[in-house]
């Protein structure tokens, strides 16, 4: 473990703390204005016959998707090869990455966020023409894409996405990105802080019982299903459906990629310098079963 942050890393820590405690910028204000009528429309349309079926179909698909380890897989060897091509020939395992300066890791992963935001826009616009029946497969495709994005971020910064604690961390990033209000964000952030600190302290991880892990997946899947379905109900409006579909998918993916970028960078630094690097925006959660109240979503 190194003793002193580089100048680049000091600047990164400041930017991470600012991201965790943001002042709403012009884009955030613009999205609030855009989302207000969409949220109101979503509240009204949820009373339309068939919408309950859409939500249940979405939730069922998400439970299956998030529960299957294969869907979390990335190609770590290909990422390690990128490091070797960049001049770091000894990178062969996740732990090797922690010997690098954060500046080098940031440089190697490059345009990762831009790639996934572009892919999300294309996918969402295509499904936007389908209407109500297109919402479940659209959301499943959106979450699949974002699973892959989180998995790549984790791998670039030295974390093994196949482990249970890393999958749990990734699930809460998906939840954080969908949070409709500050309370929901705090619930997700409390989980993320708990896991990040436990891993940074090298605390022995006690595997959750399969039953408990499945229950957590079900809780997060239902929350995601309700939140994302409500947000995407505007797709059934003629003409605007494709615009809203692509726009929302890019917006959600942007939230996911931003969260993954800042949180994995913070954890990378915590691995190098100790868990005190992790800024505690909220008190770490007492347990891993988040109390998600989707009636507020």
Describe the structure.
- This protein is an all-alpha fold.
- It has one domain (7-296).
- It is 67% helix and 0% strand.
- The protein has eleven helices and no strands.
- It has helices at 7-20, 26-45, 51-67, 76-85, 102-109, 112-128, 135-156, 164-178, 182-200, 210-232, 241-273.
- It is globular and about 60 Å long.
- The termini are far apart.
- 40% of the residues are buried.
- The mean pLDDT is 83.
Largest sheet: none
Q: What is the count of DSSP helices, taking H or I runs of 4+ residues?
A: 11
> Residue-averaged pLDDT, rounded?
83
Total strand segments: 0
As a percent range, the share of helical residues equals 55-70%
Instruction: Kindly estimate the percentage of residues that lie in beta strands according to DSSP.
Output: under 5%
Give the helix/strand class: mainly alpha
What is the element string, with H for helices and E for strands? HHHHHHHHHHH
**What is the quaternary state of this protein?**
single chain
Number of domains: 1
Evaluate the radius of gyration.
19 Å
| Gross geometry | globular
In angstroms, what separates the terminal alpha carbons? 42 Å
Which features does this protein show?
single chain, 297 residues, mainly alpha
Describe this structure in a few short sentences.
The chain has 297 residues and is mainly alpha-helical. The chain has 11 helices and no strands.
Secondary structure elements and pairings:
Elements: H1 7-20, H2 26-45, H3 51-67, H4 76-85, H5 102-109, H6 112-128, H7 135-156, H8 164-178, H9 182-200, H10 210-232, H11 241-273
């Amino acid at each position: 473990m190194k003793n002193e942050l580089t100048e680049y890393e000091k600047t990164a820590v400041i930017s991470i703390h600012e991201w965790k405690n943001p002042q709403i910028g012009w884009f955030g204000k613009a999205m609030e204005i855009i989302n207000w009528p969409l949220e109101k429309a979503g509240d009204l349309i949820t009373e339309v016959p068939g919408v309950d079926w859409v939500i249940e179909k979405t939730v069922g698909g998400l439970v299956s998707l998030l529960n299957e380890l294969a869907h979390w897989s990335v190609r770590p060897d290909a990422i390690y090869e990128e490091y070797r091509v960049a001049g770091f020939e000894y990178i062969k395992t996740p732990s090797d990455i922690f010997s690098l300066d954060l500046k080098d890791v940031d440089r190697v992963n490059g345009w990762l966020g831009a790639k996934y935001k572009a892919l999300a826009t294309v996918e969402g616009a295509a499904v936007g023409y389908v209407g109500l029946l297109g919402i479940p497969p659209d959301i499943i495709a959106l979450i699949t894409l974002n699973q892959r994005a989180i998995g790549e971020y984790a791998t670039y910064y030295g974390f093994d996405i196949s482990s249970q604690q890393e999958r749990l961390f990734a699930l809460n990033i998906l939840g954080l990105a969908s949070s409709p209000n500050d309370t929901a964000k705090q619930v997700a952030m409390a989980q993320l802080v708990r896991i990040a600190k436990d891993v940074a302290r090298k605390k022995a991880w006690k595997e959750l019982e399969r039953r408990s892990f499945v229950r957590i997946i079900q809780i997060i899947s239902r929350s995601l299903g309700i939140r994302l379905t409500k947000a995407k109900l505007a797709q059934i409006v003629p003409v605007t459906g494709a615009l809203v579909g692509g726009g929302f998918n890019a917006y959600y993916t942007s939230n996911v990629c931003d969260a993954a970028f800042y949180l994995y960078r913070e954890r990378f630094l915590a691995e190098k310098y100790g868990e005190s690097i992790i800024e505690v925006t909220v008190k770490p959660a007492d347990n891993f079963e988040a109390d998600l109240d989707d009636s507020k979503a």
